From TrEMBL, chains A, B, C:
Domain of life the protein comes from: Bacteria
UniProt-recorded name of the protein: DUF47 family protein
Gene3D superfamilies xref list: Phosphate transport system protein phou homolog 2, domain 2
Family to which the UniProt record says this protein belongs: Belongs to the UPF0111 family.
InterPro entries: PhoU-like_sf, Put_Phosphate_transp_reg, UPF0111_domain
Membrane-spanning intervals of the chain: none
């Protein structure tokens, strides 16, 4: 039993503050991932640039939400879950947003014109993981459907494994077939940013699993 | 209200231990950043090498100070701020020092002879952010001038944004104009280390903002 | 004196849960490092591939152990050391395992045929650091031989310094003599993963030093 678990018996938990913020952060990540999937499947460069800019704006929105969670954490002695878990979950979701924006930013800066299959697959996996992230976060507020949270977390872990596989295969192929070192660097960095986004989804899932264990 | 806030009413805070250490750490970073700016503006290679070595020495000094803060944190049950904030602030300042040294180390190892404008600009931004870091850290001990801390933190955030912009532009230019892949790698890594130093200054600013909120 | 130090006088510590898990995690890292040293010294490619696969399997074992430690941390209010130290130590040991596997994975994906001297030296240093890690972790359960822990930690720090030196020298040599940019990228990334493994050993040593200080 954690310190928070003891306090929760005599102090009302203020769930009204934290849960809507987490839900906003997760919805924002799903929107960003949706834009990313659109961008890597768009035929026109100008269309892509517009999507990159929309991703940028949503990343700023995500920063605001994360900042708000940290501020509330500083102001509230009693929190619905362990403080460290609230902090870690907020950070993990923010990192997913940062990496989606970072991937899009590199595609724009490096003037990537050819969207390869691994880029499209990884973007798709990020969207899938984000949707499960949002589902799980939405269930945190009452913990009535712990099984749903657990299942989303398991799916996120499986998606992350698939992303690892796609990334490893794609990088090996780059080293085998790409003779232009500068192109190789560009694609490798974009693939790495995309793959790391799924790692951060897994981090968020791990925090939620830990929350379930503590509050079971 | 945090656990520390409760304890602080009946246990005297030992500010004498932590604040001088934080001030030393911040002053050390300002000195390192000053040497870095000198190095990237020095015409002679031998002069630069001397400066790189001085940066190395100061990084060791910084390590000692950080280690001391961690040791004191282990020995003291009551701390002037939340333990996690003291740990995070010490780590962030130490990371800035590591990245300044890491940038200088790469310049030396990669035998960078031409100091480009983005390298000079980023080094300058690191120095500016370090000076604001030192100012803010210096105000932590009595929290009489919370506004000064807040203003330094806002400036650090703005400097980090400028550094992001300079970095993105410089990397895009490398991919556009640098045809030598090995040179591209060298410059890109140095720019990345410099830019990350400003990120860690922002991390330190975020911890200080959090300290202000909790102790307001 | 920490919060845990106070509680430990009236609540029995459950050492039976955490220490065997830490010991398993450390033994697992030593086994992984032993396989890595074998792989980078193996003459036949097929032999190496078998060793890489064994490393992969042990990394999964390590993940399970780390997950178990996190779960126990969630379930137990009283821990033998500060919760944050248990978490940090488990994370640092897991990171060492990840980086050994990551290094092996890159050697396999990049189809590295020539194992250079710096790769062999760094692998050897990882093994040495892992052995000291295991020794120190094994002494944590009774803290009767604090000096042994301290000496292992000092040796790990010294090994990390040697690894830094080998890495810096090897990367400088790559930039001086390797004209094939793609080969340079491959080797540089493998060297970086190996060197970072020793950094994470040092992180683990730092946590153990902190545990000694708090419980002295």
């Amino acid at each position: 039993m954690s310190l928070n678990s003891i306090f929760q018996y005599f102090v009302p938990k203020d769930k009204k503050i934290f849960f809507p913020l987490f839900e906003q952060a997760a919805v924002n990540v799903v929107e960003m991932a949706t834009l990313l999937v659109k961008a890597v499947n768009a035929a026109e460069v100008s269309k892509r640039e517009t999507l990159y800019q929309q991703i940028d704006k949503l990343e700023n929105v995500g920063d605001e939400i994360t900042h708000q969670i940290y501020l509330e954490l500083g102001k509230n002695f009693i929190t619905p879950f362990d403080r460290e878990d609230i902090h870690s979950l907020a950070t993990a979701i923010d990192d997913v947003a940062d990496l989606i924006q970072g991937s899009a930013n590199r595609m724009s800066l490096y003037q990537i014109s050819e969207m390869t299959e691994p880029i499209q697959k990884l973007s798709d996996l990020i969207l899938q993981a984000s949707i499960d992230l949002q589902k799980a976060v939405g269930e945190l507020k009452d913990l009535k459907n712990v099984r749903n949270i657990a299942e989303s977390c398991i799916r996120i872990n499986s998606i992350e494994n698939q992303a690892d596989y796609v990334f490893d295969r794609a990088v090996a192929d780059l080293f085998l077939y790409e003779k232009d070192a500068i192109r190789l660097i560009k694609y490798k960095e974009i693939l790495a940013a995309l793959e790391t986004a799924t790692d951060r989804c897994e981090d968020a899932a791990n925090v939620m699993e830990s929350i379930i264990v503590k509050n079971a």
